[in-house]
Amino acid sequence: MAFPQHWQIWLASGGLVIVPVFFQAPLVRLFPELSFVMTLGWIGISWMLRTRHWGQLWGDLLLGFSWSWLAGSIYWGWLRWEPLYHLPIEAIALPFVLLDLVLRCRQSRNSWGLIGHFFYLGSLLGTAITDIYFYLVDLIPHWRQLMQVEPEFVRPVFQEAIAQIYTPWGGFWAGALLTLLLVMGLFPLRSKQIQWWAFSGAVLSTLVVDGLFWLAALCA
């Protein structure tokens, strides 16, 4: 029996959030221009898949991923030294996505694009909640330091950040925002509409990415 399509989209959405941590992150530090130009490649593959019946859903998802890739290329390539720019850059496509969703509500339009939109919104939501935690626990100064110091000096910065996370204040907000992510990630799985599964996969994969960064800080 074929693997259900909803679960395929859910897993792929999660993968498209997690994989850039290993692939785009080192690429954009060394070759930011290449990472930026690769956005056009993702968009091209997306539209190519759209022309094939079997690939329409995947092309749709990949188009949403292209927005996230573009934002990551811009921020981590040239602006990573200033955390205040992170969320605005990640939201670079938000006006276009919201406008298209509003127009869909007012007009009779085909559903192509919804999976990509919901993936992007889920990814952006996960990013926003993570950034909110950084602000609430006052980890932003450590973020700035990590972007400026040489690799051999990152350990003390990580240790100071971990110490703040392990305070009662840090623990409270970690638990609260973790619960929020779980609720917002699991509740959409009740829907039969496949775009909500893309949203869920993107939101829940944020927990994996955050967990990887936490482990990196512990092991530093």
UniProtKB/TrEMBL annotation:
Keywords of this protein's UniProt record, alphabetized?
Membrane, Transmembrane, Transmembrane helix
Pfam families assigned: DUF3120 (PF11318)
Q: Which InterPro entries match?
A: DUF3120
Q: Where are the transmembrane segments?
A: 7-25, 31-49, 61-78, 84-103, 115-136, 170-189, 196-217
Please identify the protein, giving its name as recorded.
DUF3120 domain-containing protein
**Organism (species):** Roseofilum reptotaenium AO1-A
Question: Upper taxonomic classification of the species?
Answer: Bacteria, Bacillati, Cyanobacteriota, Cyanophyceae, Desertifilales
